[in-house]
Amino acid sequence: MKTTHIAASSILQELERTLQLVRPEEIEALAESVASAGAIFVAGAGRSGLMMRAFAMRLMHMGFRAYVVGESVTPGITAGDLLVIGSGSGETRTLAAMAAKAKSLGAEVAALTVVQESTLGQLASACVVVPAATKDGSTGMALTAQPMGSLFEQSLLLLLDTIILHLMDRKALEGAAMFNNHANLE
């Protein structure tokens, strides 16, 4: 039991240290991009993709037109829309190709990544640098006891929830109002 408590405490310390290093102006720029987009499309691979799916769900709860790339009900992206990609390395080929395609169609691209100089970081008009370790541990500023990209993925979820809170504040929304868009068939 004591080991579990120590591990949880260590994870929380890593998250706090990492999140304090994220630049507030980058979060603000991403929130502004989301607020002004016609529709928001999200993408990520693996566990990062799961964090992005959670973000799309919260955006939908707020009344945004939000879609997960690759789902059968996702429409095409167009000019005025926003593609938000979460990728630790910023070099996942499929995601980089997706970002390039979105830009060629006139959509904006935003990225949350460890490496600002990455392909995705360079394609993005709004880039949030998350100073965590990538899954291979080769880049990033944070030392972590956690495996692979865990610190990035956890930080990604918390940063995306921070953006949701920022947008809720801008729209003067409370959680109860968002419940109207919550799933109700289960």
UniProtKB/TrEMBL annotation:
InterPro entries: PHI/rmpB (IPR017552), SIS_dom (IPR001347), SIS_dom_sf (IPR046348). PROSITE patterns: SIS. Transmembrane segments: none annotated. Residues 30-173 form the SIS domain. This is 6-phospho-3-hexuloisomerase. NCBIfam families: RuMP_HxlB. Belongs to the SIS family. PHI subfamily. It comes from the Bacteria. It holds the Pfam family SIS.
